[in-house]
Amino acid sequence: MSDSQLSHAIDRGVHLTPAGDDRFAGHAQAEWQNMVGPFGGITAAAALNGVLQHPKLLGEPIALTVNFAAAIAEGPFEVRAVPVRTNRSTQHWNVEIHQEGSDGPLTTASVVTAARRETWSTDDEPMPRAPAPDTIVVPPYTPPVAWVNNYEIKPVSGTLPTAWDGSDGESSYSLMWMRDRPARTLDFVSMAAISDLFFPRIWRRRATRVPAGTVSITTYFHAGSEQMAEVGTQWLLGQAKAHTFRNGFFDQTGQIWSQSGHLLVTTHQIVYYKE
User: Fold this and answer.
1) Given this model, what pLDDT does residue 78 score?
2) CA nearest to 123, candidates 265, 227, 262
3) Phi, psi of 126 (to 5 degrees)
């Protein structure tokens, strides 16, 4: 099936076809364009999909770390996913994304998959209280970059500044409902992408739209495929904050819950910013 035959932007963005041992061919889509290159979340999801499509896959993803070395240009790219060690219940992968003419990989990643088993389980991080998503009305707006059109976002608190006046805020915290647009049943690739949905914390903290970009992001999957399928097309509640801004880099943590209150994902990234 070609990219154009796929009905959803997520599926077009992560679509891969086998291209030899440990290699898969993809195509960076204009609809996922960010300020420089594609939205990092869809790049992370494409890297993960190289593992998910691999015939040697064991289990399901539990951890994904993606390092953005250079921007991917719109057009063809190649995912190279190599299982470097397979244990009894876990499997470790190295992943790279290349484009013709590039000097080395543009993206590197590591993935850990595992054969999950039933155990005692609980969420130790409570879901924040928030009004129901259907009660929140968002005024129409024109997204500044293409990829935002692929999501519905309903802020609860910690929205983007109404005035970009450089005034320091008291917190970088944000809470918001979010889901794919159009609605799509949740799975690992869409979860990997939406985990990078939070706007840069420095914009919230300083009310200054400085250039910023993720250097490295790690996402931990706490839900398996069955639990994600149960979530279906429901809204997800996400919160994000930074801990420190220093010497051109800041960290950003996030958690995402299902509408029924289950913690699905935790994520942490280091972000570059420029004065």
Assistant:
1) 98
2) 262
3) -70, 150
Both tokens assigned to 18: 């086998």
Tell me the C-alpha to C-alpha distance, in Å, between residue 22 and each of 19, 34, 78, 111, 229: 8, 28, 10, 14, 28
Picking from 42, 88, 87, the residue whose alpha carbon sits closest to that of residue 68 is: 42
Q: Is the dihedral of CA 229, 231, 233, 239 positive or negative?
A: negative
- Whether the upstream peptide bond of residue 182 has omega within 30° of 0, thus cis, is yes
Which pLDDT belongs to residue 142?
A: 86
Q: What is the pTM of this model?
A: 0.95
Query: 99: Cβ–Cβ under 8 A, 6 or more apart, which residues?
Result: 72, 73, 75, 76, 77, 78, 106
Q: Which two tokens stand for residue 97?
A: 């994304």
For 150-211, strand residue ranges (E) read: 151-157, 174-180
pLDDT of residue 4: 63
Among 211, 221, 213, smallest CA distance to 252 is for 213
What length does the chain have? Answer: 275
DSSP E strand boundaries for the chain: 17-18, 23-28, 60-68, 75-86, 90-98, 107-114, 151-157, 174-180, 212-221, 236-241, 245-246, 249-258, 263-273
Distance from C-alpha of 156 to C-alpha of 139, rounded to nearest angstrom: 13
CB atoms within 10 A of CB 162: 7
Between the CA atoms of 157, 159, 163 and 164, what dihedral angle is there, to the nearest 10 degrees?
Answer: 130
Among 217, 195, 198, 202, smallest CA distance to 250 is for: 202
pLDDT at 1 over 70: no
Residue 62: name the closest of 1, 25, 131, 117 by CA.
117
Answer yes or no: are the C-beta atoms of 111 and 48 closer than 8 Å: yes
Q: And the tokens for 71?
A: 């921007």
- Kindly report the backbone phi and psi dihedral angles of residue 206, in degrees, each rounded to the nearest multiple of 5, phi listed first: -115, -5
